[in-house]
Design goal:
- Helices cover 38% and strands 18% of the residues.
- By secondary structure, the chain is α/β, with parallel strands linked by helices.
- Helix 2 links the parallel strand 2 and strand 3.
- It is globular and about 65 Å long.
- The structure holds glutamic acid.
- The site of glutamic acid (GLU) has 7 residues, from loops.
Length: 283
């Protein structure tokens, strides 16, 4: 068994991250398996190096130990570009020149699990127009989701405790795989990394279960193995809302500074016990 914890270094880790890390780490260690860390630092504008160090210090405080060096998404850009190129050569992605404002203005774009469903404006541009505009207009790359689903075949995955689930990528519309300002989207980078790292069990929050619709599709398109998934309940604060990076009181640093014992907290979380005022909820 090989599991991973993949923080984005855009803020301090909080109790929800600790819960996720402790579950993934505990599952691997109980099976005599490996546990890896991945730093999801593909978003160069929002990622900060001091948050990487802080996250690793938080994990060490909890007694969560990891194998090998943390994997850095910022060092894997070549693999993301190669995968995008492979999809491009199969006609499954297209350049999109729309701005956010363009998309917002195109009628009332309906919303899907990944936000506004792209209305498809750039999907059917002619080759000549595409080439001309690519030369001087910023563009992202979108997956032609309808064609991708036809090309993909079986899209089920094994969800821990629930059996087989069928992915529903069409609900997302033509999602972005490479952004104007970042060479890969979370979906593309995360799917490729999990495969490259040999992750057998993806254990992460239930807020990401709809992302698995897309990840499963990308695995099928790129010939990658499908890990088992377990999407766990989310830690909610005293207001009943899921924790966010702005909830300073729940940050691991604040809890540590307040004198809490890290390994004792980890043991409680593993057993599903949370500090007073916090609760676990399924979205
Ligand atoms: N970096 C992602 C996050 O912090 C986690 C991605 C994942 O576990 O797949 O939400």
């Amino acid at each position: 068994m090989l599991t991973r914890f993949a923080p984005s270094p855009t803020g301090e880790l909080h109790l929800g991250h600790a819960y996720s890390a402790v579950l993934a780490h505990g599952a691997a260690r109980a099976a005599g398996g490996e546990f890896l860390i991945r730093i999801d630092d593909i978003d160069g504008n929002r990622s900060r190096e001091d948050y990487v160090g802080a996250a690793l210090a938080d994990l060490a405080w909890l007694g969560v130990d990891w194998d090998g060096e943390p994997v850095r998404q910022s060092q894997r850009l070549g693999d993301y570009a190669a995968a995008l190129g492979a999809l491009r050569s199969r006609g499954l992605v297209y350049p999109c020149f729309c701005t956010r404002a363009d998309i917002a203005a195109s009628l009332a774009a309906p919303h899907g699990p990944s936000g506004a469903i792209y209305p498809g404006t750039c999907r059917d541009l002619g080759m000549a127009e595409r080439e001309r505009r690519m030369a001087d207009e910023p563009h992202c790359w979108r997956l032609d989701i309808a064609r991708a689903v036809v090309a993909a075949g079986d899209l089920t995955w094994e969800e821990g405790g629930q059996g087989l689930r069928a992915a529903d990528p069409l609900a997302h519309g033509d999602i972005v795989l490479a952004r104007k300002d970042a060479p890969a989207s979370y979906h593309l980078a995360s799917t490729l990394d999990d495969a490259m790292m040999g992750v057998t069990h993806v254990i992460r929050g239930a807020d990401l279960i709809t992302s698995t619709d897309v990840h499963r599709l990308l695995q099928a398109l790129l010939g990658l193995a499908t890990p088992l998934y377990r999407h766990h309940a989310l830690v909610c604060g005293p207001d009943g809302k899921r924790l966010a990076k702005r909830d300073a009181a729940a940050s691991l640093k604040a809890l540590r500074d307040g004198g809490l014992d890290g390994p004792a907290l980890a043991a409680d979380l593993r057993a599903g016990r949370l500090p007073a005022g916090y609760s676990l909820q399924n979205p």
